[in-house]
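Hi both,

Apologies for the delay on this - the queue was longer than expected. I finally got the magnesium ion-bound model through. Below you'll find the protein sequence and the ligand SMILES exactly as submitted, and right after that the structure tokens for the full complex including the ligand.
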Amino acid sequence: MSTVQHPVEVDHVTKTFRRHHDRATSLKQFVAGGRRRTYDEFVALDDVSFNVRRGEVFGVVGHNGSGKSTMLKIMAGILHPNKGEVRVHERMSALLELGAGFHPELSGRENVFLNAALLGMTRKEITARYDEIVDFSGLDDDFLDTPVKTYSSGMYVRLAFSIAINVEPELLIIDEILAVGDIDFQRKCTERFLEFRNAGRTTVLVTHDMNSVRTMCDRAVWLDHGKLRGTGEPGEIVDGYTESMTGSTDRVAKLGSYREGSGELQFTAARMLVDGEPRRSLRTGDDLVLELELTATSPIDDPAVSVTVMTASGLMLSEPCTRDADIVLGRVDDRRALTVRLPDLALLPGEYQVHCTVSDARRHHIFDRVHSAVTFDVMAGTPLEQFGTVSLRPQWTVE
Ligand SMILES: Nc1ncnc2c1ncn2[C@@H]1O[C@H](COP(=O)(O)OP(=O)(O)O)[C@@H](O)[C@H]1O
Ligand SMILES: [Mg+2]
């Protein structure tokens, strides 16, 4: 009997994390230095096995916290399982969480060299590919000489994807990262990705976008609280997963049209209030209040919350953020409600939508972004204007 060697073999993998709690039970004890250090073991992956076959696009689906990123980090060799093993038989490059693998103080240029070296390229190979990597990323030369900590999340992704795909891996591992760049760049990535696939190379892909699982993947696996719920035909996996989601997490699943992010914090409610009442429409000149609720699955310090106000066709009008207003949320470890008031609304009649985003303080890492979390109509009000999107508050004088 001959055994086929698959590019990735996941063999009875169990991964546990220790979660530490620093606990001083009383102030006195705390002052006396008698704090107890306790921890519990958390099973992030529980006896998971599957193979990824050569040349396929393999999807990994599951709700937030189900162990997808942990699985990919084990494949990439960043984490090690407690039991079982993952065997990778191909030259791999991995596009994990935003900025993972980037050194914030180094310039873009230095990071290209550092990253490519980590992926196993020689200095000569990197130099030969450098222009192509930069070209593909579309970043300006000036930016390549500045530290990547000054980059926007979009710039991060451009550079990271460009490196990952241009080092000619045989196996590409992607953790839901593509949704962040702009449309043009996404199209470029998709094209390059299809080339990669058509060349018979292998991809493992985590995504929340069930349409891409259906259309792009050859097979998929479903993780649920660290356990394998199924492996197989993408359509069946997606159906099973979606059914389980709509059954259990009603309120969250109904919020917005599409969501992305790593999930430590999630929006569990978002609505518009006018004069203290939930509403779906208002008038130019009204005060709009957005009421948001966040729920933590693990504690996060000082997240940033922003609301992106857009026209129905997707033109971004404004993106107020707690950071810009110097609002500090502190540690969020349970539920947190917040509101943002947009007084004397300048929007003219039309349909609008609001995306809600919660990210780390530097706005690099997205915990949750809910697209079209709130949609509303604006009707004619004050000032009364006929055309356009916003009122610029005109003040006419006639001599
Ligand atoms: N380094 C870590 N220490 C402790 N817990 C962790 C660590 N990394 C992940 N976890 C926990 O393991 C679970 C699975 O996380 P993850 O693999 O990121 O899930 P997913 O990518 O499916 O959202 C989550 O509950 C997460 O909080
Ligand atoms: Mg993840």
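Main takeaway for now: Residues 17, 19, 42, 44, 62, 64-70, 262-263, 298 surround adenosine-5'-diphosphate (ligand 1) (CB under 6 Å).

I'll put the files on the shared drive as well.

H.
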